[in-house]
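Working notes for the structural subgroup meeting. M.R. asked for a predicted model of this chain before we commit to crystallization trials. I am recording the input and output together here so anyone reviewing the notebook later can reproduce the run.

Input as submitted:
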Amino acid sequence: MEKLAPLGNNVLVKPLSVEEVTRGGIIIPDTAKEKPQEGEIVAAGPGKSGKAGNLLPVEVKVGDGVIFAKYTGSEIKINGEKYFIMPESDILAVCTSSAASKAEGNN
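Returned structure, recorded in token form:
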């Protein structure tokens, strides 16, 4: 992956793509599904400046599984893979057990 460093309190999130299959065995393509709302932090900015000029660091770290707002961020592609760049404030929750390891079946 190219080196990408978000600025300020922005984060780079790799969405988790979970293949959806109906009960009849029909696979629903990505284009027919809503945007994913779960992903993994790939990179995070240093934070933003507070009123007193001090740096307020971002609360998430690389590797955190997160749930984010439905229609947020800017979608970008890096080496053919989809990512979202969004402000940290659009992250709704941090998953205690890594969402990525659940998707890979490592639990």
